[in-house]
Amino acid sequence: MIHASWSLARLKWALLRAAVKGSAQQRIQIGLSLVLCIIFGLSAFGVLSTLGQRSASADQILVVLLPATVIAMGLLSSAAGVESTIDARHLAAEPLTRSQLGTGLLVSAVVGPPTLLALLAGAGIAVGWSGSSPSGLLILFLAILGWLLTLLLFSRTMANAVGAWSSGRFRQVAQALATISALSVWFIVQVLSRQRASWTSQRWAELAEIAKWTPPGQLGLAGTSSAEPAQAVVHLLLGLSWLPLLLWLNMISTERLALSSPRPGSGGRKMRTGFQGLRSGVYAALPHGAVGAIAARTIRTKFRTPRQAVNTITALAIGAGIFVVGPLLDGEIGDPRTVMLGGLLFFAVLFDGNNSFGVDGPALWMEIQAGADARVLARAKALSSIVVMAVPALVLPVGLAAMSGGWKWLPAAWILAVGSLMGAAGVSVGSAALAPVAVPDS
Hints:
442 residues, 2 domains, 18 helices
């Protein structure tokens, strides 16, 4: 098991080094990831160390923080999907047992920039909540280590489970779970950012009373009970008690993922198409020829492949909802000219199509073999982005007009939406052509 873990960790390190030495796009990706992890890690270190030393609710904050971060990482991992550097499905034919494969992939997951962020956050907790006694420091260190292991196991288990389901008969469930996970994180951030004044000591205490019943919450209690070593040890053991269960679930989910089909959709599918065949409904409005055919295939892929469906729905929800959720949470829209913002869907289009070639896989190869050149592919991708985002671009200004009474600004908002869609579609296709990144489907 140790040899397999070491080998997979070395493989992950070699792949990262090869990516750095590869194309400029890969160097930019890894460099940007490293810089962002360091920036966020240092920010977390500063915030946590300051809260732990100066906040009157420091103990309650730690008890709430540990389970909250575990849940957030699980949701983000479910939405992001399996790791693309080392996909477990590519190792299914290797002579590895379940424990060797699961442990090896866990160890390899530690190799990368996100580990720096986690370690810096853990260091911030250590500085902020450190006690004076050696036993208290030891218990706090073990609590932080248990929290980091919980983050790793819980996030990887969630990603593996959703990835395995997404290629089986439960792929619709997996698709819904991944989408809900992505939107839940965004919605929670929106709610919390607008209620900063309500985070009083009483509210932290109420949340801590709930969070302490979770294993990560028990780890938080262990870290804050350094003055009573016996009680802290009990909390520590309770917080670590579910790690064997998480490890077992991770082994099972990793094996299921490794044995699942990398590309779903091999089974039959029944569709009611009427007399128009596969070009029924909205597809009938697409132009005939290669551009229309590729655009139709791209739109279908967006909503039938779990990873792309999550990406598209998230882009729609965040890109369009950013102008609606905020005013709804605030209770009103003051300026009628806010209707104009409904036409600004740059982010939604860019988020949806910035890697449209990288996610195509064999479909792109077949279209090229069928004679599609770069101009046809670019026009088809731009057309598919415009078609997908056209309905939100028309409906969102209407909703904002109903909320604000700014109906006279509606025509201008639609004109702005046309320019927004066409401009952002062109930029997203250019970005996708210059930096395609092949990713797993789940």
